[in-house]
Amino acid sequence: MQERSSSVSSETGFSLIELMIALTVTLVVMGIATTLLARSLGTRTRENQRTDAIADAQRGLNIMSREIANAGFNMSGNGIVAGDSNSTSIRIRSNLNRYDGAAMDCLTGSTNVRCTAEEVGEDLKYFVNVAAETNYLVRYDDNEDAGSPPTTPDLRKTVLANRLDSFRVHYYNQTVTYDTDTATLDITNFRYADNVTAAVEVTPDSARYIVLCLAVGLDAMGTPGSPGYQPATRVMLTSDVALRNNSSDLISY
Predict the structure, then answer these.
(1) Does residue 136 surpass a pLDDT of 60?
(2) Torsion of CA 12, 18, 22, 23, to 10 degrees
């Protein structure tokens, strides 16, 4: 009887040191990948916040510009309430039912006709409300809920935008040009149409041309040099508004 000899094959694996090295490398790579992903997500979040803040401010600025342009409609004067308007807020009045038959009689001085701004959207004030975490651009309608106690929440107050750094209003009697100043978050160096002569600001009740400036800001995230650091950002938005109802030479605007 012949005995068969069997060969025993030996298999070798990774040593403990090799496994520890491989694990260390894997952890380092994963740490780097996680850091890069966190930075990417942080940047995306910050850009979304920036985009939303600018979009809100732009919408608010458009609404203000359109409604301020109607100041003084079917009324005497420019429609700006001087006692309640300054460099950081503006209140305007108008009589929007201009083409109502009764309202047209206001022009002839007829009696028993409503010639004042007593309806919704005809007595508005724009200002910034300073809150704990942010600043809100507010549209206040004095005639909303008129004749009854204000509802809760008060419908007369509408938030047009938040995350604002500042809101500035400038009053002139004709069209002007200007420069932006990111240091003061305002517009400066106002000039008349010749682009040379310095423009002189007038009182609100004498204005025929309004310049609005909104500064949108986001604070810095993190500290300089740290992972995911995002510097503070400031964006300035401006709008020129001609009070067309108080101008004898509209074509010049």
Answers:
(1) yes
(2) 100
